[in-house]
Amino acid sequence: MSASTVTVPAVGAPARDRTDRTGWWKVVPFVVIALVAVVGPFLLPYDPTRVVASASVPPGGDHWFGTDSAGLDVFSRVVAATRLNLLIAGLVTVLATLIGALVGILIGMNESRRGPLGLAARGLSRLVDLADAVPAIVLGLVVISFFGATAPTIVVCLAVILSPIQIRLIRTEVLRVRAEAYLDAARIAGVGEARLTFRHVMPNSVSAAWENTSVVFAVSIIVTAALGFVGVGMPPPTPEWGAMLSRGAPDAVAGRWWSATFPAAALALAVGAFALAASEVLRRRRR
Amino acid sequence: MVRQRWWATRVAMLPAHLLVFVVLTFILVRAMPGDPVLVLLGQNYTPQAYAALQADLGLAGSLPEQLVGYVVNLVQLDLGQSLMTGREVVAEFAQRLPGTLELAMCALAISALVSCLVAYVVVLHPRNPVSATVRAYARAAGAIPEYVLAVAGLIVFYAALGWAPAPVGRLDIQILPPPRVTGFPLLDAVLAGNVEAAGSIVSHLVLPVGVMVLAQSALLIKLWVAGLEDAIDDPVTRFRVASGASRAAVVLSVYRRAAPPVITMTGTLFGYLVGGAVVMEGLFGFNGMGQYAVDAVNSGDFIALQGFLLVVAAMSLVVFLVVDIVNMLVDPRRRPGVRVEES
């Protein structure tokens, strides 16, 4: 199996230039969205899970984004969904990177060994490659429907499904770090294998995966919303962008554009704002 | 014989890879919380009915026995009977898979073609204003998912402009579907020489395929541009130019050297496109695999879902096999047993 591996040049010690003030604005859109996620739910004009007006009211003074085909306020739901969607995506990213670090180091440190441990590590490495061959949305659809669509299962399932990207990145880095002289020096100094792995190998091999978190975050936002879109996500009337989008789609086709357009725009804005912010943060780290 | 080993060993690995997924789906179904047999029986619970249904679903006996029974059934292409309709899952897939595949394949072919051409313009005419636009677009690769673009497309091209047909199926309602030969709707219409049906199918495919190409081809463009820019500066290219090769031969050689990563990505893209097709089928009223899977989720039909996962996995594995073989054809250094210095 050959799958594409993203190789990111290794970064040295991050030297931050505090006088660099260009590009700070690139972080602003994401900070605004994160603020909306944190404080938004306290400032809603209407209850996002209740019928508050007649169905399909166009955007206007009372309902800024109009109401959907069931009479729920679109603005309140878009804002309320921000927290859920960002929270799920954020947790998935953290968990996938943790799994990636653990499994990646396990595979990287053991795969060249003889005996059952090496065999197991090589087998696991193949398994990761194979699991990555199946589209994440298909795997997510099946696994989440088996284990039930609640926020915790969605987070755990998606984290496991998206972890192969991180596992592969970290494994590659571990293989590079393993050959470094300072590991031999530490071994000669009598450092145990476990301590060696966590004190010396891990800090030196996670940078590529850390830089890749922006990709994982974007993918997990998109996949979470895709699950909601096909109707496998959180049960209605939970405010969630994907589910809102799919329920608004028939309205949109009938010419009532607002109930689908606003969640779609929120989704695109969140992904775009995070990518912009991440590229700026990483640019600063890299120098 | 020895000469053919490079592809034969790769092909021989396919059943082993498939077996991994068979075991994986097997474990997944057994790891499901709750007892599916009890849930299915509900009010009709009797010990006899329980035992009978358990045996029916292949959930009776020890785990190794269950696994052997499962594999034996799979070898005979038996994925079991759907819990929601009682129909054979294989028969259901045979009917629905071609439509989904056709959608994904159309998008894949057009993405491959478009990215190839666009990358040519970007790399060989860097000062062209089109190139700057394409570069900016390629940088944003995958930022907006296809289902968002699809909803936007429907609002603009169907609701506002009225150019796209209504998203309620693959064909206009008044047109009779062509006789089923291959199962691929468009191919069947073409084979039957039914211009009206073929035209209608194409007009229904334009929006979903266009949306998928727009959302996903940026990935390929990015890789092509990076690869071509590297390959064009290579001494090999200078040697070809200096030795008086024609422009076409030089360009072909540059493309060949840049191709392997793009070919690998095309395989990955196939997976993304199948996922995209699964998500978008409901939106366009296409009655394909995705719609079936969503219905199966809503009725808790784990037999159908297990089959769905296996079929998609098998498809992805076959595509990766093709990708590996094409890569080994394009670049013989990638064949096993050939050692290359890592650059």
TrEMBL record, chain A:
Tell me the membrane topology, using the record's own terms.
Multi-pass membrane protein
In which broad location class does this protein mainly occur, judging by the first location in its UniProt entry? membrane
- Residues annotated as domain ABC transmembrane type-1: 82-278
Q: Which InterPro entries does the entry link to?
A: BP-dependent_transpt_permease, MetI-like, MetI-like_sf
State the source organism's domain of life: Bacteria
Tell me where the transmembrane regions lie.
24-44, 86-109, 136-162, 215-237, 257-278
Quote the SUPFAM superfamilies the UniProt record gives.
MetI-like
Q: Which UniProt keywords apply?
A: Cell membrane, Membrane, Transmembrane, Transmembrane helix, Transport
Where it sits in the cell: the answer is:
Cell membrane
What family name appears in the similarity comment? Belongs to the binding-protein-dependent transport system permease family.
Protein's name according to its UniProt entry:
ABC transporter permease
